[in-house]
Amino acid sequence: MSNELRIAGMGVSKSVVSTIVSAAAEKVEGVASVYGKDIASGIIAMLTSKPQPTASAVECSVVDGDAIAITVRLVVFFGYPFTKLAEEVRAAVAEAVDAQIGVRVASIDVCIDELVFPKE
């Protein structure tokens, strides 16, 4: 599997797409982090028996030669309705991809992989 997406006559590294998607998603209120991308998750996994995430935090593929399909995995804060949060993440990611890469977004799947409770 290549680390580059060939889309709209150009090559874009999947890590570049991942960086753009992660930055956009993490700006949405209620998102703690992109799953497995934060330093704290890595340290906790090393010091405990909690397994490291097996799936990529951001997955992307080319659809119909000129559009991109994205899956983003998130850690979210308790208290934010999932459907509303997912819709806000989709809007932020679509806007960021359009602004930075300039390609059509075919779909954005939001996976909530972990829930963080506030300390009281």
Automatic annotation (TrEMBL):
<dbReference type="InterPro" id="IPR005531">
    <property type="entry name" value="Asp23"/>
</dbReference>
<comment type="similarity">
    <text>Belongs to the asp23 family.</text>
</comment>
<protein>
    <recommendedName>
        <fullName>Asp23/Gls24 family envelope stress response protein</fullName>
    </recommendedName>
</protein>
<dbReference type="Pfam" id="PF03780">
    <property type="entry name" value="Asp23"/>
</dbReference>
